[in-house]
Amino acid sequence: MSQDAALIIDVGTGSTRVAVVSDEGRLLSIKGRKNTYHLDERYKDAKYFLPEELKENIFQLIHEVMKETKEVAIKYVSSSAARESFVLIDADGQDYYGLPNIDNRGKEWLEVIPNREYIEKYTGRPLTEDFGAMKLYGLKQKRAEMFQTIGHIVSISDWIGYIFTGSIEMEYSQASETQLFNIYTKNWDQKLCDAFGIDAAILPPVIKTGTRHELTQEVKERFNLDQKGLYVVGGADTQLAAQGIALKEDEIGLISGTSSPVVKYQEHIPDFEKNKEFNFWCSCNLAGDGYQVETNPGVTGLNLQQILDSLVKDVSYQKINQYIERNYHNLKLLASFTTQSPYKNIAFSNGGFLMDVPFSQEIIFEDFIHGIVADIAFSIAFKIRQNEVLSQTTASFIVGAGGGLRMETLCQMIADLTEKKLVLKENYDEASIIGAARVCFSADSTMKEGTVIHEYEPSNNDYLREKLERWLMYREQINSKKEIGAF
Asked: Which stretches make up the Carbohydrate kinase FGGY N-terminal domain (predicted)?
């Protein structure tokens, strides 16, 4: 008798993966490809993707993993996808344009949006260009014909559901990323729509993670899927990653990838008036059950990947990790590229490297990468402390997930700076995929919690804390708007 398995499609910022996961939680096969983005030259900083291109990649990856897992029976199909990323569908059901999380086309109009305090309170997040509403507002300003074509907007994970079932809907955790969704009423909000000039009719019904749908006959035949196979509604990758590491209500989770959100489950929304100076997000959790409070340092892992791609494409993580380990207490320069202020509800616009002058001949390219890794660790440590204050939690350890934690020295820095043990469980680096599979098999009760495979114990590290203090001053100085003198 063949083993039951789930086919999981996971669309991240940098790449798309498709995996087959057994009903016991074993990763049987996984394949991936880099995502393709295009620039829209009408804007200062606008990127888009073509749904048809992404769909073709997904289909090819499905064929690849299915060839490797012919002995299993695909009982479920589900999806996980990056937050703040959306697909536009026209009135005829054609998916014609994609707005990824790295699209910032709405930024130049932030100051004209009314009712800012209402928006931030009832959506649980600061008004920024990151979320769906400002992407749509920016689209309307310079791509009016494309904006007027919108019949529906869905998240990428819900778009995958549309491909496999024909249902147009949006899951709670993804709806929270539009900034058109009221996290108190857990529904679309007309006042929010009015603030951005968006017709509420384009917003689909909100659906719970775990809802099951019939697969279309076309999909079953294309991929030779079982006639009894079902599509299970997935959700946002961060929430699913927390599910994948079986995060408990009294624990703090770190989901480190392109960015590094620090998350904590909460039954209630934090008091907005008391905490609005914090840079925090509060989202509906999967299926709308409770809330997830998040503090986020902004872009982290993407910085590391980009400097590696730019400077040292052929150098492995292992080699970089070994260099940092040998020079753990010899940080020759500081970097500032994580995007969020440690203290305030603002994004930094300036970054760079700080080093002693004159330029030292001892500095090599690994030192620049060492600085980037330390920048990530410093930012994460601050956000862990903030989340503890915000959620009124004092956790004795942190549960980690995400590919960003594959670098051992980064993990050790986080443990040292927070003075907390960092725990990694089996498949921590594929946690969103495991989380989606866990949702699929939740009714079957066959998946067990992953075993702990790494524990990073904190050590008393005054050296790193001293560097952190200098890093803080540097970040504030290069982003200060005070005049320092005339030439």
From this structure: 6-243
Instruction: Tell me the C-alpha distance between 413 and 372, whole Å.
Output: 12
Contacts (Cβ under 8 Å, ≥6 apart) of 305: 14
Which residues does 110 contact at the CB level (< 8 Å), separation at least 6?
A: 127, 128, 129, 134
Angle at 69 between CA 64 and CA 71, to 5 degrees: 150
The most distant pair of C-alpha atoms in the chain lies apart, rounded to whole Å, by 80
What phi and psi values does residue 179 have, to the nearest 5 degrees? 65, 25
Q: What are phi and psi of 134, to 5 degrees?
A: -75, -30
DSSP per-residue codes, 318-378: HHHHHHHHHTTT----EEE---B-SSSS-B----EEE--SSPPTT--HHHHHHHHHHHHHH
Q: How crowded is residue 38: how many other Cβ atoms within 10 Å of its Cβ?
A: 12
Contact (CB, 8 A) for 475 and 342:
yes
Give the range with max mean pLDDT: 138-147, 357-366, 467-476. Answer: 138-147
pLDDT band at 154 (very low <50, low <70, confident <90, very high): very high
Measured CA to CA, the distance from residue 92 to residue 482 in angstroms comes to 53
Asked, as a colleague might, if the bond just before 358 is cis with ω within 30 of 0, I would say yes
Say how many C-beta atoms besides its own lie within 10 A of residue 308's C-beta.
18
The distance of Cα 193 from the centroid of its chain, to the nearest Å, equals 24
| Residue 431 tokens, joined | 């946690």
Q: Is the dihedral of CA 482, 116, 136, 147 positive or negative?
A: negative
Q: What is the DSSP string of 161-226?
A: HHHHH----EEHHHHTTTT-EETTTTEE-HHHHHHHT--GGGSPPEE-TT-EEEPPHHHHHHTT--
Question: How many CA within 13 A on the CB side of residue 110?
Answer: 13
- Paired sense of beta strands 230-236 and 72-81, if any: parallel
Q: What is the DSSP letter of 391?
A: H
17: enclosing H helix or E strand: strand 15-22
**Of the candidates 163, 32, 10, the residue with the CA atom closest to the CA atom of residue 87:** 163
Pairing relationship of beta strands 72-81 and 150-155 according to DSSP bridges:
unpaired
What is the rounded CA–CA span in Å between residue 167 and residue 204? 10
How far is 99 from 135, CA to CA, in rounded Å? 7
Cα separation, 99 vs 147, in Å, equals: 12
Taking the CB of residue 296, how many other CB atoms lie within 10 A of it?
26
Q: Which two tokens stand for residue 41?
A: 């030259």
When pLDDT is averaged across residues 292-307 and rounded to a whole number, the result is 84
CA–CA dist 39, 375 (Å, integer):
28
pTM: 0.92
Residue 475 DSSP class: H
Query: Are the CB atoms for 176 and 283 separated by under 8 Å?
Result: yes
